[in-house]
Design goal:
Elements (H helix, E strand, L loop, with lengths): L1 E4 L2 E4 L4 H5 L8 H9 L6 H5 L3 H7 L2 H9 L5 E8 L6 E6 L5 E4 L8 E2 L2 E5 L2 E11 L2 E12 L4 E4 L11 E5 L2 E5 L12 E5 L4 E5 L6 E2 L2 E5 L2 E5 L2 E2 L9 E5 L4 E5 L6 E7 L2 E6 L2 E9 L4 E6 L10 E6 L2 E6 L9 E3 L9 E3 L7 E9 L1
Antiparallel strand pairs: 1-2, 3-4, 3-29, 4-5, 6-8, 7-8, 8-9, 9-10, 11-12, 12-13, 13-14, 15-18, 16-17, 17-19, 19-20, 21-22, 22-23, 23-24, 25-26, 26-27, 27-28
């Protein structure tokens, strides 16, 4: 029996006797897997500690599939919040109703900035970034994975090239990283892809120009890279680089946004807030390559900041720590006009750094 550990395949030490034993005595393994899948999500970490064979089942991709077929997947919101003083951060976990459930164990490795987070196969990946080591800024190639079913961190294979301030997104079950700054602070045009099945990072075709401070999203099986800066543009770039995994090549347009401070995908649309106006959202529809503008129901300073989250198909806007007078806002893109905005009761213990939604 095999499992992916630290980016490599490793044989789990299950002797032939354990391999031949059923998951649950008296039941076929298919039925036993269904029984295990019916356990509430909050109890899965305890179930993974029963034995090595159960642990292997719980951390497998098949386990998520069985839970999906059984109709019992649960959506939880994971928010990385900055503690008061801005020196430490921690992950808060909330259920689909926005009720706080727990906090994650501390992230391994040194404290970093410029890293990116992405979700694949019900697991949270924290990728690369820049760490302060012996008084110097050092680009990292580290990749850590949090298994939401086992409530534990592990290290995956390193990136091929250390980087920070790059773009990152999941497309069709694969994880892509693009551009950023490298080990010597140089701007990068290189791009890599990670396959969770093999646990291996591989280079793909590079961008036509170095790009950093950008972000990425996946739509219609393609990777969209927007925002940030490029060596070949004055100021912030409006270029959109689009990568087709099927063709293995890049194409582009000039229909992008600049200086994006928050972004999130909800349904088939991309929501962005630009630094120049924090009172409007730019909404991208990849189906017809168009943008529309949605005004926020707020008054006051246009510089007040927000970070996005998403839950149950709705967009959450978390106010910056400085904007203590503002509540968390909720935007429902499917509601009738005039009823799309509400105030959410979700409150974080600190300012939001980033967030992800994980269904498992």
């Amino acid at each position: 029996m095999e499992a992916l550990v630290s980016g490599k395949k490793r044989i789990i030490n299950l002797d032939s006797r354990l391999l031949s034993e059923p998951l649950i005595p008296g039941l076929s393994d298919d039925v036993a897997k269904l029984c295990l899948a019916l356990v509430p999500r909050a109890s899965l970490p305890s179930m993974g500690r029963v034995c090595k064979k159960w642990r292997y089942v719980v951390q497998s991709r098949e386990f998520i599939t069985v839970r999906k077929l059984a109709g019992i997947l649960q959506e939880w919101l994971y928010v990385l919040t900055m503690d008061a003083g801005g020196k430490e951060s921690h992950w808060e976990v909330m259920n689909c109703l926005g009720h706080k459930l727990s906090s994650l164990p501390p992230m391994p490795g040194p404290v970093k900035t410029g890293f990116k987070v992405v979700v694949v196969d019900g697991k949270l990946l924290v990728i690369a970034g820049c760490a302060m080591i012996n008084g110097s800024h050092v680009a990292s190639s580290d990749v850590y994975q949090f298994d939401t079913c086992l409530n534990s961190w592990s290290r995956l294979a390193d990136l091929k090239e250390a980087r920070y301030d790059f773009a990152c997104a999941e497309v069709n079950g694969l994880v892509y990283v693009v551009g950023g700054h490298g080990g010597d602070g140089e701007s990068l045009s290189s791009a890599e892809v990670y396959d969770p099945e093999t646990g291996v990072w591989s280079f793909i075709e590079s961008l036509r120009r170095p790009r950093w401070g950008c972000f990425a999203s996946g739509f219609n099986g393609k990777l969209y890279v927007m925002g940030g800066r490029s060596n070949f543009t004055i100021g912030n770039s409006k270029l959109v680089d689009v990568y087709s995994p099927k063709c293995g090549s890049w194409c582009g347009s000039k229909n992008g946004v600049t200086m994006v401070t928050a972004h999130a995908e909800v349904g088939k649309k991309l929501f962005c807030i630009e630094w120049k106006n924090q009172r409007k959202m730019s909404v991208f529809n990849a189906e017809d390559d168009t943008w529309e503008v949605v005004a926020l129901p707020l008054s006051g300073s246009s510089r007040a900041g927000f970070q996005f989250g998403k839950l149950s198909g709705k967009l959450l806007l978390f106010p910056s720590q400085e904007e203590t007078g503002h509540n968390t806002l909720l935007y429902d893109p499917d509601a009738t006009p005039g009823r799309q905005w509400k105030t959410s009761e979700i409150k974080l213990s600190g300012s939001c750094v980033c967030s992800v939604t994980i269904i498992a």
